[in-house]
Amino acid sequence: MEVTAADVATIPRTNLRVSREEFAAIWRVAERQCAEQGQRGVTDWHAGGVAVACRWLARATVRPTSGPPRAARSPVTERTNLAYEEQIEAEFVAAEQLDMQQPRPTWLHERPGWSEAICATLRWAWRRAGPAPLQVDEAAAS
What we know:
The protein has 142 residues and is an all-alpha fold. The chain is 52% helix and 3% strand. The chain has a two-stranded antiparallel sheet with strand order 1-2. A hairpin with a 7-residue loop joins β1 and β2. α4 packs antiparallel against α6.
């Protein structure tokens, strides 16, 4: 997904505890990494986790290669509700619980870095705690 200025402009201010610019830079890097790795036939689960969390927080419209466009689903619970404050907090708690689950579910074990990336993204963007989930250089941010 290409992150446009329109996508960024419509992010509800209450959905982020970081600036829209910081958030957009991370989101763009995640989407770019997913696309680049996908072209190589590689699944980047970490970048994918960041991307799905960002899409949901931003209330982005996902345009799949097949089927109609739809609102981004929450990354862990896959709810179709739009992200808003109470939902974001509930999703963060669900993500943390999933990440700590022992034994780790097989499907999650097969997605290395995915749940950790979702937790890191929500922790950073929503709770304003911890570092950004990806590194951003100036060229990648635009």
